[in-house]
Amino acid sequence: MLDGSGIDAVIDWFARAGRELPWRASDASAWGILVSEIMLQQTPVVRVLPRWQEWMRRWPRPQDLAEAPTADVLRAWDRLGYPRRALRLQACARAIVEEHGGEVPVGLEALRALPGIGEYTAAAVTAFAHHERAVVADTNIRRVLVRCVRGEAFPGSTFTASQRALATEVLPAETERSVRWNQAVMELGALVCTSRSPHCEVCPLAPHCAWLAKGRPADSGTRARTQAFEGTDRQMRGRIMALLREGPASRERIAQLRTDEADDRVPRCLDSLVADGLAVVEDRTVRLP
């Protein structure tokens, strides 16, 4: 099991090497931190940063986003991917306004009750915004823990009960130290203990790492598979959304997005966007909601 010296080493490393990001600033609001956590899901920091800054300039409070036209919200989301997250974030803002007086609620249960807020996001907001003890376990943290403690290369795509137990056992008992540990180990996974090219030579956990001690054994089949993008429905949905962000488009114009005559994705993807509440069809014209 990872001992206190290993935890201290990671916290000390973060104090020296952690990135200065606006949602980590001492004056960052709970709302701003919640927005960052939603945006950062499956999206790298370099893409999120300018979008988060613009988002917070336009909608610095939940009430601001709750009252915004949905079409403007989807345009502002731009190419962050998975635009349903933007709809859920607006629904979350409305729930915060209607049920919590415009303030992000405190406590895992209250956070989990908000639209689009799952186990990880509730824990992250609890730790990083409200500075309370919570088991935060994103992909980066899970990867660090299974490598260091279990000697496994990858944690797999699912947050298992055994991984939850491991993250809980490692989490420091002291509230302030637990928050710093969550921040530090997440950053370590993002910058050092990466998926493809881990920098073990500069890792503060190197003396404690079971995976390194074993000679960094190859993946045993637990590595999360990367989904292909080219030619997928997700790619076509993105193309349709990019067109609609420019303004309403005719069905005929959308049909021109086909890559060839055999490409049958356009009608299927348009129907799915309508079903998800991301597009509206009026006669022969398609627009953002």
Automatic annotation (TrEMBL):
Catalysed reactions, semicolon-separated: Hydrolyzes free adenine bases from 7,8-dihydro-8-oxoguanine:adenine mismatched double-stranded DNA, leaving an apurinic site
Enzyme class, first EC level, given as a word: hydrolase
CDD domains: ENDO3c
Cofactor: [4Fe-4S] cluster
Enzyme Commission no: 3.2.2.31
Keywords: 4Fe-4S, DNA damage, DNA repair, Glycosidase, Hydrolase, Iron, Iron-sulfur, Metal-binding
Highest taxon of source: Bacteria
Start and end residues of each HhH-GPD domain: 39-191
Listed InterPro entries: DNA_glycosylase, Endonuclease-III-like_CS2, Endonuclease3_FeS-loop_motif, HhH-GPD_domain, HhH_base_excis_C, HhH_motif, MIG/MutY
Record Pfam families: EndIII_4Fe-2S, HHH, HhH-GPD
Family, per entry: Belongs to the Nth/MutY family.
Name recorded for this polypeptide: Adenine DNA glycosylase
